[in-house]
């Protein structure tokens, strides 16, 4: 039963869609629209069971409510999943059918790319609906052209957040000589490394993709280390930018850095690892606070904001993190718990009279 599902958490709306002709089976979950229309990625994944797909979409959708509220965006939280193998089952007809599913919700949910979908897939869905995002070519926030890829903005936001953590811990945001270990130098991690290098930091990097690793070594003078060593190096900051659940029973006791600040989603293996980091004296920049640059970028694409609007908003990530760190110190609660509380304050404040109201859908043009 869905209403009693452990991950249900007061979702406003769930929509199941099946298109026999194209084989599309999709679910759209809208967690909360009190701040605005729900925006989140459309993931295509070969879930082993329907239950797995439901669990994933519910968790991801709720996470988007928290991320957007914490970033002070007029957006709600939602997510969609397509059940299937993106390498085998993705066809133009299936993506167009997904576009019809999106259209049927009239803009209450807006889809962006996620694992298993690309900007070109979103453009195909866009033949059937306006409610897709992250696909427009426009000037990027740093002056270079953007094709809709949010990674440069995510990397800049992570850099700003990392600086706020350094300022809080060491009393200065001068990064000269700061030692940083980066796990994963892909789209976000490499750009973060470049910002850090320009600010005078010393870098240690790892990646399972040797081309990416080589690029960081050659272009940025970073020191390559093995994947198994990266989290336990004697550095000031560890920046996980590859995959989730890396802060766990095994890694936390072995950390030598006093700050963890990276872009990867769902860094904590279990909720109690938030407290475990605090007990170890590690300042943790909650992932959904520090990696909000991408959703900020997509929001301004939808609302027609300028590159300067994007930059100014992304820079508020530093203020939000400082507020989290200070409140954590005052209350003794770990930073992840504080980030959740702050996000709830920000979306519950808007709740009265809101939620799936058409007049709130100001961002679907
Ligand atoms: P990416 O795939 O471009 O980069 C990830 C890199 O990590 C790749 O180079 C990959 O080879 C490497 N990697 C994977 N497993 C590894 C391992 N075990 N050890 C070392 N390296 C490993 O992805 P990305 O877009 O840079 O995103 C990185 C993380 O940030 C992801 O968790 C993503 O969900 C999160 N994130 C990204 C964005 C964005 O705008 N791209 C926004 C928010 C959050």
UniProtKB/TrEMBL annotation:
Keyword entries, A-Z: NAD, Oxidoreductase
InterPro entries for the chain: Aminoacid_DH-like_N_sf, Glu/Leu/Phe/Val/Trp_DH, Glu/Leu/Phe/Val/Trp_DH_C, Glu/Leu/Phe/Val/Trp_DH_dimer, Glu/Phe/Leu/Val/Trp_DH_bac/arc, NAD(P)-bd_dom_sf
Record Pfam families: ELFV_dehydrog, ELFV_dehydrog_N
Glutamate/phenylalanine/leucine/valine/L-tryptophan dehydrogenase C-terminal domain boundaries: 148-355
SUPFAM superfamilies in UniProt: Aminoacid dehydrogenase-like, N-terminal domain, NAD(P)-binding Rossmann-fold domains
Gene3D superfamilies in UniProt: Leucine Dehydrogenase, chain A, domain 1, NAD(P)-binding Rossmann-like Domain
Source organism, top-level taxon: Bacteria
Similarity remark: Belongs to the Glu/Leu/Phe/Val dehydrogenases family.
Function: Catalyzes the reversible oxidative deamination of glutamate to alpha-ketoglutarate and ammonia.
Name of this chain's protein: Glu/Leu/Phe/Val dehydrogenase
Origin organism lineage: Bacteria, Pseudomonadati, Pseudomonadota, Gammaproteobacteria, Pseudomonadales
């Amino acid at each position: 039963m869905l209403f009693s599902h452990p991950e249900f958490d007061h979702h406003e709306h769930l929509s199941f869609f099946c298109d026999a002709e194209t084989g599309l089976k999709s679910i759209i979950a809208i967690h909360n629209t009190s701040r605005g229309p729900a925006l989140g990625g459309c993931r295509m994944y070969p879930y082993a069971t329907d239950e797995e797909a439901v669990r994933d979409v519910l968790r991801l959708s709720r996470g988007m409510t928290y991320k957007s509220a914490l970033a002070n965006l007029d957006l709600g939280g939602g997510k969609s999943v397509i059940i299937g193998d993106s390498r085998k089952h993705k066809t133009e007809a299936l993506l167009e059918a997904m576009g019809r599913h999106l259209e049927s919700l009239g803009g209450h949910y807006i889809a962006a790319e996620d694992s298993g979908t690309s900007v070109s897939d979103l453009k195909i869905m866009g033949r059937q609906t306006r409610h897709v995002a992250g696909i427009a070519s426009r000037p990027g926030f740093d002056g270079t052209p953007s094709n809709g890829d949010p990674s440069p903005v995510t990397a800049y936001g992570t850099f700003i957040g990392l600086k706020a953590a350094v300022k809080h811990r060491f009393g200065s945001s001068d990064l000269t000589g700061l030692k940083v270990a980066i796990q994963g130098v892909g789209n976000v991690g490499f750009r973060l490394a470049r910002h850090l290098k320009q600010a005078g930091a010393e870098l240690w990097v790892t990646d399972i993709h040797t081309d990416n690793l080589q690029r960081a070594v050659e272009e940025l003078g970073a020191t390559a280390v093995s994947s198994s060593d990266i989290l336990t190096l004697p550095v000031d900051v560890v920046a996980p930018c590859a995959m989730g659940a890396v802060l766990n029973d095994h890694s936390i006791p072995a950390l030598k850095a006093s700050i963890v600040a990276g872009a990867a989603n769902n860094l904590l293996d279990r909720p109690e690892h938030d407290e475990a980091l605090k007990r170890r004296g590690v300042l943790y920049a909650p992932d959904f606070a520090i990696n909000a640059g991408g959703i900020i970028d997509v929001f301004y694409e939808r609302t027609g904001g300028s590159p300067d609007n994007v930059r100014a908003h992304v820079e508020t990530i530093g203020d939000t993190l400082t507020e989290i760190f200070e409140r954590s110190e005052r209350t003794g609660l770990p930073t992840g718990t504080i980030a959740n509380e702050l996000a709830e304050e920000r979306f519950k404040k808007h709740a009265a009279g809101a939620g799936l109201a058409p007049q709130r859908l100001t961002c679907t043009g």
